[in-house]
Amino acid sequence: MGQVILTFCADASMREMLIRLLAAAGLVANGTSGSPAAILVGCRDRIVPNDLEMARSASRHGARIPIILVTSRGSEDLAIAGLRAGITDYLRLPLTPEQLAHAIAAATPDQEDACSSGPILGVSEAIVNVKKALWRAASCDSNVLITGETGTGKELAAEMVHRQSRRAAKPMVAINCAAIPDALLESELFGFERGAFTGAHASRDGKIKLAAGGTVFLDEIGDLSSFAQAKILRVLETGEIQKLGGQRAQKIDVRIIAATNRDLDRDTRFRRDLYFRLNVARIHMPPLRERRQDIVPLAEAFRTEFDLRFGCVTRAFAAGVRELFTAHNWPGNVRELRNIVEAGFIDPGPDANGHIHIPPRFRDAFDSAVGDELNRILSALSRHSWNRSLAAKELRWSRMTLYRKMSRHKITQGSA
Known about the structure:
This protein folds into 3 domains: about 5-110, Rossmann fold; about 125-285, Rossmann fold, CATH 3.40.50; about 290-410, Helicase, Ruva Protein, domain 3 (Orthogonal Bundle), CATH 1.10.8. About 45% of the residues lie in helices and about 15% in strands. It has 17 helices and 16 strands. The strands form 5 sheets. It has a 5-stranded parallel beta sheet with strand order 2-1-3-4-5, sandwiched between helices. The protein is globular, with a radius of gyration of 26 Å. It starts with a strand and ends in an 8-residue tail after the last helix. The model is unreliable at about 110-115 (pLDDT under 50).
């Protein structure tokens, strides 16, 4: 869900146009979830006093929410009158969704992270940098390569780039490159004409055509065969597709976002020319073990999600669970954390006090994680001659987090 933008416009047709512009920019007109990021006031050749008063009232109740005037027949006098009335910015139609999104971003400079927050939760420095990179990628139309381990949220990142881009009103079609054999590749991606092969009783569009005007998300692109890589490269070079059995190529307007858990920089089987085409805007999703500050907030968000799904009203995680979560290395990343929280609702399920426990089958791995964390802390402290600041920096923790963990493990100088 994008930012919420309140819209006031007495003219019904113009109001509908503004709502469509907002949707195309990946923004939500008059939504009910969250505080509005900005307010739009639309008018033809003069500001309707009632619209302006409602906008001012909403702004006063929202800690000075910026008000942006959009007019179809503007003039210098109207602009001056609007600015004197407390309007933050003045825009004249026609506008593109991208221009509107940029104007709103400029009026709300502190909202950039909120625009790109979406389903990717976290406040660690690593994830904040990711959100900023996603916002920058969304503001252009370049190809994007998202890298990261399995379970780090690469598809969520792709969805966020699409929803905040000028293509948001068009589809995003996800294609799992590892799941399409070469024999079916052309028919799946490009479509086929009637009679192209046995069983082709009618013409059908491929997945790339279904994303026309929008985004194609190529997941696990590192698993493509050489044959498939050549086909994708051809699309990127020409901007055309040709149906299986077809006689003519068709121009196609799509943006490509690719993702992989492989190191394509060193993968000798992956074509360099295709890699360079994809590696324009590069975003790396950090593993969960490198943003431990986000583990507990993520776990709490998943607990809330599963409360709704299972019809429960849990109170918290059981004693010690948060500490075990923080100590664990999460080889499966965010996906593993989500699955374990879900498993806690099933086996053993919430206890009589509404607490969620770690399922018994995962307990050994989590208990060993506590020992691993103790060793990591002692090793870091020893390497830095018990300098807490340097040890905390190596462990990617704040000093206060290191102090809390030293207290929990009863670590004092000389413990090593």
